[in-house]
## 1
Amino acid sequence: MAFKIPTFNLTCNVWRNALAPAPYATPDLALPCNLTPGKRVFTPLSATVFAFRYPMELLLPVGSDVRAMWNGANQDLIEVPAGSKRFYSVLWVDDVAKGFANEYRVAVIGYQVTGGANFAPPIAAPVPLP
């Protein structure tokens, strides 16, 4: 059985600069996506990764424009699902199955614990939706 492309059943909002000193505003992009924890294993807490304790994987269609810090001045800020106030910072972006028909993009994202400088007042860490 061939590997299938993930279903992109959610929409995520993307802001270009996770550290921009602007209030909550219209996102720069809205993209179809899928949110998954990837491997379901315990991640120990560490002071060195305080803001990104529990990474998640954001699956996106091939060629989606999502940027980690190494792509520019600052990483993108992601809200997924769109409108949920669950914010994440992009830690890493790469392609899966590059060059094959089932190619898609994956972004490793971490909880934005403080809500980011984009938000006044800061928003708490993501909570599960009902």
## 2
Amino acid sequence: MAQCQKAPLSPGYRKVQNIDYVGAGDPRQRLDLYLPETDSEKPRPLLVYVHGGGWSEGSKDEADVLLGLIKDGTPYAGASLNYRLTDQAQWPAQIHDCKAAIRWLRAHAREYNLDPDRIAAFGISAGGHLVSMLGVTGGVKELEGELGRHLGQSSRVTCVLDFCGPSDFLTFGGKGSIIDPDEPGGVLAKLLGAPLKDCKEKARKASPVSYITPDDAPFLIIHGDKDNVVPYSQATELDAALDSAKIPSILLTGTGGGHVFLSGPLVERMYAFNARHLLGKDVQIPEGAVPSK
């Protein structure tokens, strides 16, 4: 699954690096903060980025798309986090880490002038899966874990930007993907601890569609209709399930887009989604096709 490249710091921002959000000294449980250098009387809305890499590689340093969303005088702060990869721990360690990071950020919001009630979760590919889980499992105790010193804090997020993330491992297989979910050494087997055919209940419990309830966060779902890694059907299935639960959901389809793409119109709609849900602006976000180049 795709990774992003390391990007330079956005002008007007300072970076606070390698914050240990669990307190155990594990480099895979650290996050970076990107904070505007200008003072603000009001706490800043926060965009939290979760990287991709098939749950088996990647880093918080690969945050170029995040930095593109918080630059040019936008009022946002940003965070990019590491989580334990599959060579270290199997599911649900990854979502336990992400939730611990959100709890840490909320507990330290006043220290960094962050608004604990305005937190967007944005992820690409495997990161899209993890932010989707954040968006739909705010009240699911078994997925909270027991990491860190801030277990009394909520791990809920305000809204979710899911960029080509898996949503249902039970329907992931078949045509349209180069990933074989039943391959013993494949990325899904490494995540779940066994090929999908041998751990279907665990796969169901690792799927965002299994947890959708009417109080979940609004979603922006971005997916290319030619994605040969995570099938486009994963996006339409998630969108339909959210619609059925009457959760605000916007599906942006990259026409001819493969696995991860960017275009000016797409970025503008991502800006608009954040402005609506983090800034309270009455902006329209056209649903449907978006150029992939």
## 3
Amino acid sequence: MTPLVIMGLAAGVMFGVGAIAALVRVIKGPSILDRALATDVLLAIAICGLGAEMAINRHTDTLVVLLVLALFAILGSIAIARFIGKEDAS
């Protein structure tokens, strides 16, 4: 096993543990803000995982997927912030 493969496996394990923890928070989160934050963390983990895969395999084929995931994360955060802002104003 090369050092690159070992680092890739270690990164995959860490991303997996983080994704499981975020999914638990999405399911059990007591408030909508907890769930929204966990969803953002889950998207960030997916983006980092795809970026790590691109770096390990030395390609840029999934760059468009990274950009679309980042766009979804930004738009989702803005939409939830506006929704919560309207609830607080009432």
## 4
Amino acid sequence: MPKKHLTTKRYIHGHDWRGNNAAFTCPVCRKVFIVSQFFDKNGRKCPECKKSTAYCTGGPGKGQAFIEWE
């Protein structure tokens, strides 16, 4: 399964990470959606196509945020 990690060192167009929340653009259907560390503890599937899942744990300084897809 392909995976794309967000980092604080480089900006990725269509993605953003602020606090314990991250915004991702689904690589399959291109829908933008938000994932939260507090509300989406097991990740969040793309609400449009359900073919990608995004995860966010912690903030940009000490956490990780990534999206994976089929």
